[in-house]
Design a protein that fits this description.
By secondary structure, this protein is an alpha/beta fold. Helix content is about 40%, strand content about 15%. It is built from 7 helices and 7 strands.
């Protein structure tokens, strides 16, 4: 049994991950949407839930309290939370830029800073990136800030893996292609992805539990199509 923390777990891929990993593991779900978390817990009572905002100024203090209440260690961290803005570059405001980076980058970094002290030899951090942030992939108008934030996640993941090598804590980034989620619908209204949220979550779950034995410090594209 592993102790697993998942951010952005109230809907989409995060919610699917929660249901898949709840079997034979102790899973803590973090998300802003408390109703979504409660619905998941009603279906899977073993899940531990905690409403949580990655833009919170007291993120590290509050998250430490939450983890201490439930775990003495963390084996797997899946940073799945994210937000998106779809606007032409000339129309994006500073506030919108800051919101995307506060959640997708700074919040993710602070979650890692908080959780790493709970990790030991053999633990695994999986940061969920995007093909939009994968160098050389197709890019789309309106997603400059979102894609830039996911490029930052990839770079951070690769650097963090180097810092944690001596502790034998693996860090990888999965650059996801299109999966049928609410966020995809917000970015590409009407588009039908070739992969369901559940199918993508199955891959991520297996990767999170096992891939650290062979892979570390990598940004890996996971995509049938872009978007």
């Amino acid at each position: 049994m592993k102790n697993i923390v998942i951010t952005g777990a109230s809907r989409g891929i995060g919610a699917e991950l929660a249901t898949i990993l709840s079997t034979n593991n102790k899973v803590l779900l973090l998300a802003r949407n408390s109703d979504g978390l409660k619905n998941l817990q009603d279906q899977f009572p073993s899940l531990i839930i905690a409403p949580f905002d990655l833009a919170d100024a007291d993120l590290k203090k509050n998250l430490t309290t939450i983890i201490n209440a439930h775990f003495n260690r963390v084996d797997v961290l899946i940073n799945n939370a994210g937000t998106i803005v779809n606007k032409p570059v000339l129309e994006i405001t500073r506030a919108e830029m800051e919101k995307v980076f506060a959640v997708n980058v700074f919040g993710l970094m602070e979650v890692c800073q908080t959780v790493i002290p709970f990790m030991t030899n053999g633990s695994h951090i999986v940061n969920i990136g995007s093909m939009g942030g994968f160098q050389g992939s197709a890019k789309f108008p309106g997603l400059s800030v979102y894609s830039s934030s996911k490029s930052a996640v990839a770079g951070f993941s690769e650097c963090l893996a180097e810092e944690l090598k001596e502790l034998k804590i693996a860090v990888n980034c999965l650059a996801l292609g299109a999966a049928q989620t609410e966020m995809l619908g917000e970015a590409f209204p009407g588009y039908e992805a070739p992969v369901s949220a559940h199918q993508m979550a199955q891959y991520i779950a297996d990767f999170s539990l096992n891939a650290h034995q062979w892979i570390n410090g990598k940004t890996i594209p996971v995509s049938l199509s872009t978007p």
